[in-house]
Amino acid sequence: MLRKLRTGAVFIAICVFSALFMGAAESEEPEPKAYVLMEAETHTVLNELNADKRLNGSYLTKLMSVLLIAEDIQNGEYSLADELTASESVTNTKGAVIWLESGDKITVEELLKSVIIGNANDAMTVLAEKSAGSIESFVMDMNAKAFDLGLRDTRFVSPYGYYSPDEYTTAHDMAVICCQLAEYDFLAPMFTTWRDFVKGGKTELVSENTLTRTYERHIGFKACHSDEAGYCIAEGGRNEKGSTFVSVVLGAENEDISFGTAKRLLRSGFSAYKVTFTMFPDEMLAPVKVKNGTASAVEIYLKEQGKAAVPKGSGELRARVVIPEYLTAPVRIGQPIGTAAFYNDDMLVYETELLTKSAVTKLSYSYVLGKLLEKMMEK
């Protein structure tokens, strides 16, 4: 009897261990190479894994291309209704296409749809040439825009996202691009469409990002995959209060991991974070004394009021103002003289400069003499 009990116990232990091991093996799936969750208004990074690691972003490259076209339209360079003519450059375009031929006429709106929904490279060619005159010039514009946005870990070599060892980006940098795209309302119908048609209904477009039809908070942007980059997605979501979050996933092993990680990140943003104002009235800022100036003090103000993404349940932000005891004339109007930093507990969440409201010239003999004469005449 004792022997049987021991054998049974061992058997049960083995079964339990096997079940736990199999359950753990099934629940654990490989992490993507990188991901990030960013609040769109403040660009605050709320969650990340290797967010600044340089990787190939595959066809997510087209999001920067779309951003440049959106800026052109916003600036009145051309409109969605304008009709463009395809050049010889569309001949033998590789990858996804809408089968444009040289001389074909098609509107900017249909071209943008084809790029955003259908990933069409020939449509991208027509838009790039309209925007910059040539593909080479357009790529220069893409990299210039990346520099302007402070994206120091991104480099583009084409508008398309064809694999190149010389092209790279990061989850963080791609999220910043998406935050910019979220500001263009006229792009929203394209970014939220899963299936459409162009060229008079002859060419069907189907988005690889199935979240456009399955995720209720979806606002954009793009999903793609390639042998070199794996499965990638840049996904934006907005809640009922208008808060927008962006998740970017690079280098996942399969679509389920890519999409699942993106949605998990967005859900954590909606459930755990809020956007709060960093209000600090200028009236609370005392004037700063000025030495050797035509005025004894100068009023100051915050360069800009801002917002910060903080955990829900956080109290009011704590402000810390750093200004000098005095200034020495001359003082310029709008001269930076200090900072206002806002903290959530001990974490810095926002910082802005303090500027002077007016100019103060340096005292001179002629100024002093003039003031003395004024007083003498008053008597």
Task: Chart the SSEs and their pairings.
Blueprint: H1 2-27, E1 34-39, E2 44-49, H2 61-74, E3 83-85, E4 105-107, H3 108-116, H4 121-132, H5 135-148, H6 171-181, H7 188-191, E5 195-198, E6 203-206, H8 211-214, E7 218-226, E8 230-238, E9 244-252, H9 255-272, E10 273-277, E11 288-291, E12 297-298, E13 300-302, E14 307-311, E15 318-322, E16 326-328, E17 336-344, E18 347-356, H10 365-378
Parallel strand pairs: 11-16
Antiparallel strand pairs: 1-2, 1-9, 3-4, 5-6, 7-8, 8-9, 10-14, 11-12, 13-18, 15-17, 17-18
How does this structure look, described?
- 33% of the residues lie in helices and 26% in strands.
- The N and C termini lie far apart (122 Å).
- The strands form six sheets. A five-stranded antiparallel beta sheet has the order 2-1-9-8-7, sandwiched between helices.
- α2 (61-74) crosses α4 (121-132) and α4 (121-132) crosses α5.
- The radius of gyration is 29 Å and the shape is elongated.
- A hairpin with a 5-residue loop joins β11 and β12 (297-298).
- With 379 residues, the protein is an alpha+beta fold.
- Spans where pLDDT lies below 50 across 5 or more residues: 1-26
Mean pLDDT: 89
The helicity comes to 25-40%
Radius of gyration: 29 Å
Quaternary state of the chains? single chain
Order of helices and strands: HEEHEEHHHHHEEHEEEHEEEEEEEEEH
Supply the helix-strand structural class: alpha+beta
Counted beta strands:
18
The helix tally amounts to: 10
- Strand arrangement within the widest β-sheet reads 2-1-9-8-7
Distance between the termini: 122 Å
Molecular shape: elongated
Strand content: 25-35%
Biggest sheet character: 5 strands, antiparallel
